[in-house]
Design brief:
By secondary structure, the chain is α+β, with helices and mostly antiparallel strands. It folds into two domains: about 160 residues; about 220 residues, SGNH hydrolase (Rossmann fold), CATH 3.40.50.1110. It has ten helices and 23 strands. Strands 2, 5, 6, 7, 11, 13 and 14 form a seven-stranded antiparallel β-sheet that branches. Strands 1, 3, 9, 10 and 16 form a five-stranded antiparallel β-sheet that branches. Strands 18-17-19-20-21 form a five-stranded parallel β-sheet, sandwiched between helices.
């Protein structure tokens, strides 16, 4: 009888309280099962001869900033040592919302644990996920992950697993400062180290769109050191903003790697090799946007010009590589969306600008548009092309002729939302999770 009365009480509350009042506690009252959503993710690789030297990490705290897409009231973080050859010791980790610079909102800080323990040793080739914590995570908020690594990472000889082009200022400080509100004498880094994803939990299932590709997905705008940092102007970030503004809901995660190729693992493993690890393991993933192939056309010629003999790729071989991704993603139950290859005809790089390159690009794009292999096609090419010279991007949408600028990435996001917004669910419990910031890279004071 007591259990029946308790159930009636809970049911009465469910009928008369607004839906937003129930969100976040629904699974605790055994009303609904919690659903995990990947709200941020990145793809990792190891350093190459084409990268700047690695950051020095020796008995240090990494304070890394990631920007969420979807909101939630629980959070967990995944860490990786997938390319390492020796164990990676994490002694202590805290997570919080960012105030400014390297400082956090103290009241939001939580210590992460791993099966109840404050520290963990991640074995070579492995990933680990933290225990879940109660934490209100707004849409498009900057989450700060502070990790104390007590050992000499740089001197260990073990390859560092990292994302080199984070385009985000992160911080390195000596010793254990993981719990500090602000860091003492911190250096900066624009890479993410040993992170794979951040998940949030909600009382309802939220779709997750994984974006897979090269530097145009990664968010590059031009060659370093002139590239904008901390702007969050990657097209997946802007797509997430468009989804929220349009009253729809979906997590959007960025799994691009600058320089990536469909057929080669020259700069990061090729997508077929990393699809299962980088995409299919993500919490709640339902959709895949795949945009890749321009480097398969241009990079072999560019490398040959630099004295590195590299076989050229045919359009047919690149299309075959696309088919492999489509087949694997569909077998995993994803809705697979293809993006046409963007114009590169005004780039200064050999291999991306000649008639042979343009012929290959047009052949691949014709297949993406009309081949029927993709469930949906987003025509990024048409959206960015100069109407008077379709082989090139519109001059106001690119800084270097190969990569879109912030305005170009906004066009890509708007084009993507116009194509897929209609298939996304309407946002539930509108207003429960405030958006933390309308200014990319700047959070509201808390």
């Amino acid at each position: 009888m007591k259990n029946k009365n308790k159930f009636r009480t809970v049911l009465t509350l469910a009928l008369f309280l607004p839906l937003s009042a129930l969100a976040g506690n629904c699974w605790k009252e055994n009303l609904v099962t919690k659903h995990w959503t990947a709200t941020w993710a990145t793809a990792n690789r190891t350093v190459t001869a084409f990268d700047a030297p690695l950051d020095t990490i020796n008995n240090a705290t990494l304070r890394q900033i990631v920007r969420t897409s979807e909101a939630g009231e629980m959070l967990r973080v995944s860490f990786t040592n997938e390319f390492g050859t020796t164990p990676l010791m994490i002694k202590e980790t805290h997570v919080a919302l960012r105030r400014a610079g390297s400082s956090i909102v103290k009241s939001s800080s939580n210590q992460l644990t791993f099966s109840g323990a404050k520290s963990i040793s991640i074995q070579p080739g492995a990933r680990v996920v933290s225990d879940a914590i109660d934490m209100n995570v707004p849409h498009h908020s900057e989450v700060v992950i502070s990790t104390y690594l007590p050992e000499d990472i740089t001197g260990s000889g073990s390859p560092v697993t990292y994302h080199v082009r984070a385009l985000q200022t992160n911080y390195l400080a000596a010793g254990n400062q993981a719990a500090a509100v602000d860091l003492d004498s911190a250096a900066t880094s624009t890479a993410w180290h040993f992170l794979t994803s951040v998940d949030v939990a909600n009382c309802w299932a939220i779709p997750v769109i994984a974006t897979l590709g090269d530097s145009i997905t990664d968010g590059d705008q031009m060659a370093a050191p002139n590239e904008p940092i901390d702007t969050n102007a990657r097209y997946p970030d802007l797509l997430s903003e468009a989804i929220l503004a349009g009253g729809k809901t979906a997590g959007v995660i960025n799994l691009g790697i600058s320089g990536n190729q469909v057929l080669s693992s020259f700069l990061g493993e090729n997508p077929a090799a990393r699809l299962a690890r980088d995409v299919l393991t993500q919490a709640g993933v339902t959709h895949l946007i795949y945009l890749e192939g321009i480097n398969d056309i241009g990079l072999p010629v560019l490398l040959s010009a630099l004295g590195i003999a590299t076989p050229v790729n045919s359009a047919e071989a690149i299309i075959k590589g696309h088919k492999q991704i489509i087949s694997a993603a569909k077998a995993a139950g994803l809705l697979v969306i293809g993006g046409t290859l963007t114009p590169s005809g005004s780039s200064a790089l050999p291999g991306y600008i000649d008639a042979i390159a343009e012929s290959k690009r047009q052949t691949i794009n014709a297949w993406i548009r009309d081949g029927g292999a993709y469930d949906i096609v987003i025509d990024f090419d048409a959206a960015l092309a100069d109407p008077k010279n379709p082989a090139a991007m519109s001059a106001d949408l690119t800084a270097d002729g190969l990569h879109p600028n912030a305005a170009g990435y906004q066009v890509m996001a708007d084009t993507a939302f116009a194509k897929i917004g209609g298939i996304l669910p309407t946002k539930k419990y509108e207003g429960k999770y405030p958006r933390q910031s309308n200014n990319r890279g700047r959070t509201t004071k808390q």
